[in-house]
Amino acid sequence: xxxxxxxxxxxxxxxxxxxxxxxxxxxxxxxxxxxxxxxxxxxxxxxxxxxxxxxxxxxxxxxxxxxxxxxxxxxxxxxxxxxxxxxxxxxxxxxxxxxxxxxxxxxxxxxxxxxxxxxxxxxxxxxxxxxxxxxxxxxxxxxxxxxxxxxx
Length: 152
Description:
The protein is α/β, with parallel strands linked by helices. It is 26% helix and 21% strand.
């Protein structure tokens, strides 16, 4: 088993070594060179070895990485989702073709990502334990001040 670390003050414990999934659906090689079966086998082996911290993002595909992770966890069967912590990053804006065209940090977009077309639906209702904000987009104001998020 891998050593663990506690994140924050709420007692969230994860393996000291996490698995970043970006290269499984984006950035390295062409889509034809990527092997989904090998990627899923890698996720399964990491979990088997005690890796409990899996990192993804809506931008890796877009959404293809989160979909891959959902399939990998589903293939492990009941209880697999409860053994890992999923960190996902958000704050991107995509056009109709899936190209990243900027950032969107509006509270409404955060809700869309989490509840709508984002990771929760792909994880079939699972809970995200680490939601990472990638880019801050200040609201244009004449005084130039930044804004903060309110509770939903």
